[in-house]
Recover the amino acids of this structure.
């Protein structure tokens, strides 16, 4: 089953795309369902698909080296949880206060795959509730853009915004890490 | 340090006499304004009153307090415990014997006291009998055993046997407790410091030839604390000889190892304002060097007891400095640090080293370089006005400021920037490695700032008196 044009427009990256163009995107996306713990993306993999989550909650996590009582070990740390609001998840989502939850009507993950060939996944994404999602491939999207160049402007602008935000966060992270490094050295 | 208006000081100046008159006139009006400001002493007394008012909490009930104190005294003192049980045993035996051998003890009272005072008047009553039995109990318990009175009935003798056997154990334990208290006092020194006396005091750990000079300078400064605790294992008589004869200082000596937490707690370090750690020469021969590791260890222990205590560490080896910084020492004093500078100044600026000598080494009572509190009313004023205040009001030369800077907080510094994951990871990892995310408040010095430099409540003045 394909999603509706309205469902596609709920996703931030396609919010500025006119409804008739969203219908073209919807026509190449198939809705699938998965259960909790199902991996939607795996860190380190290469991929040319963007995951569109229409209903449910997913958790974004990264492998990190941490110091524990038994020494240094690699552990998967949750970074953020993404939760749909329209419609909300069918099951009660996880509400741990330690992990920030971002709520949106629907959302897309792996948007850089719409720009890069074989983009490397920078984090794990797995379902924490039953999730309804669709896959938009780079090839399908490129074909739509080729036939409807107007779509590209809207979508690539949103992807660029997301990239700039990531860059700003990364820059602040480097600043914090540098500060912490000097702080630890001088103690 | 003194006013000197000799013409020699102005003859090379470009300032005309009219301009000088203008400056003097301006300063006079400023002086009049400043004179209306409240005195430092008045402000100090207000702040002291405020602090005292803050310290006074709601008064708790005295009965509860007394019971709590007695409980604490009983559970914490072996001697009191044995004495209490001995008293109970004496009272029980007295009561039992009074009841069982009433007739015998009553008859004995009549035979012994003769015409002297008795509670019952002409005839001894139960109180006289009880007191007489109590006398017997004490004589028996203390193993004196006059033999002037003794139980007659089988039951009385049987009870007496039990009491005497119990007494043997209690008296032995009581004697042992007395002996152990005396031995402990001999070994650990005076263990009964009056806690109420110690608040905002100075604790000096370690002993070397600098101690008398340090005490002399602190004694000379009326504004500094007058309660000092010395913690070191140097011979008590040597310490006593050095620590007598001060005008103001009330010095207490704890003759124990200052690296132990229990010893620092005994010196009420949690209430101390300043803790000074010196290279300890206690028990060392003249050619032996103090163990600097003790200084680092003591600093770590002190900071674990009281994070807010101002720790000043004196080290001989510069390699110890980095360890002390990690141990969170507030100030680190390194001897000979100024020597190259002074030697070079003898060549480049003759007179400057002599100035330092006069300023530091020949400091007299209420003279020399001192730190004084700035009146609150001057907070927010520029440096030139504060400088004029001290010059015209007290004839002191304001050379700079000691500024209390808030400790650095990595958490505050990072704020909400970057991703929460990275911020949390930094905090978790540093805390896991034992690195404190905040540093203590510290003092920085601002010497001869520009005229428009603004003063706030974090500043105190460094004046040449």
């Amino acid at each position: 089953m394909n999603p509706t044009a309205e469902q596609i427009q709920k996703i931030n990256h396609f919010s500025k795309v006119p409804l008739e163009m969203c219908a073209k995107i919807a026509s190449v996306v198939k809705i699938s369902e998965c259960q909790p713990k199902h991996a939607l993306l795996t860190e380190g993999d290469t991929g040319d698909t963007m995951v569109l989550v229409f209903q449910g909650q997913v958790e974004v996590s990264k492998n990190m080296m941490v110091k524990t009582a038994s020494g240094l070990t690699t552990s998967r740390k949750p970074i953020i949880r993404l939760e749909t609001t329209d419609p909300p998840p069918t099951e009660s989502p996880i509400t741990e206060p330690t992990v920030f939850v971002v709520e949106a009507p629907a959302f897309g993950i792996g948007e850089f795959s719409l720009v890069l060939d074989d983009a490397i996944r920078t984090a794990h994404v797995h379902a924490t509730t039953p999730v309804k999602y669709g896959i938009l491939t780079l090839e399908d999207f490129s074909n739509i853009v080729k036939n409807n160049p107007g779509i590209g402007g809207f979508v690539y602008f949103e992807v660029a915004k997301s990239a700039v935000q990531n860059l700003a966060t990364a820059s602040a992270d480097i600043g914090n890490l540098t500060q912490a490094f000097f702080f630890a050295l001088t103690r | 340090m003194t006013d000197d208006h000799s013409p020699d000081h102005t003859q090379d100046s470009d300032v005309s006499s009219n301009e000088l008159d203008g400056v003097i006139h301006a300063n006079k009006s400023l002086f009049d304004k400043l004179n209306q400001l409240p005195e430092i002493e008045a402000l100090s007394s207000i702040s002291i009153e405020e602090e005292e008012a803050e310290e006074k909490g709601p008064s708790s009930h005295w009965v509860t307090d007394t019971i709590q104190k007695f409980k604490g005294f009983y559970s914490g003192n072996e001697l009191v415990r044995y004495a209490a049980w001995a008293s109970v045993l004496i009272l029980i035996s007295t009561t039992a014997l009074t009841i069982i051998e009433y007739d015998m003890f009553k008859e004995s009272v009549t035979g012994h006291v003769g015409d002297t005072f008795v509670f019952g008047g002409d005839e001894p009553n139960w109180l006289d009998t009880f007191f007489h039995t109590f006398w017997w109990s004490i004589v028996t318990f203390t193993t004196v055993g006059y033999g002037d009175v003794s139980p007659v009935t089988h039951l009385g003798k049987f009870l007496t046997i039990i009491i005497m056997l119990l007494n043997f154990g209690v008296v032995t334990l009581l004697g042992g407790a007395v002996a152990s208290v005396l031995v402990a006092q001999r070994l650990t020194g005076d263990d009964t410091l009056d806690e109420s006396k110690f608040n905002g005091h100075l604790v000096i750990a370690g002993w070397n030839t600098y101690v008398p000079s340090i005490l002399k300078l602190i004694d000379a400064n009326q504004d500094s604390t007058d309660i000092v605790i010395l913690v070191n294992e140097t011979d008590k008589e040597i310490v006593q000889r050095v620590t007598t004869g001060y005008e103001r200082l009330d010095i207490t000596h704890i003759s124990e190892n200052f690296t132990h937490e229990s010893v620092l707690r005994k010196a009420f370090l949690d209430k101390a304002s300043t803790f000074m750690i010196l290279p300890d020469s206690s028990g060392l021969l003249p050619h032996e060097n103090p163990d600097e590791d003790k200084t680092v260890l003591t600093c770590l222990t002190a900071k674990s007891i009281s994070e807010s205590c101002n720790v000043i560490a004196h080290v001989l080896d510069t390699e110890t400095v980095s360890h002390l910084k990690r141990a969170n020492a507030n100030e680190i004093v390194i001897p000979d640090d100024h020597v190259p500078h002074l030697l070079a100044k003898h060549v480049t600026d003759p007179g400057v080293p002599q100035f330092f000598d006069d300023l530091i080494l020949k400091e007299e009572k209420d003279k020399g370089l001192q730190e004084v509190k700035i009146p609150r009313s001057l907070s927010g004023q520029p440096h030139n006005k504060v400088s004029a205040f001290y010059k015209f009001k007290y004839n002191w030369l304001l050379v700079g400021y000691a500024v209390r800077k808030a400790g650095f907080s990595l958490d505050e510094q990072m704020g909400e920037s970057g991703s929460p994951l990275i911020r949390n990871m930094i905090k978790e990892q540093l805390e896991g490695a034992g690195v404190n995310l905040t540093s203590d408040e510290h003092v920085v010095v601002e010497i001869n700032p520009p005229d428009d430099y603004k003063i706030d409540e974090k500043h105190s003045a460094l004046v040449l008196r």
Observations:
- The longest helix of chain B spans residues 154-188.
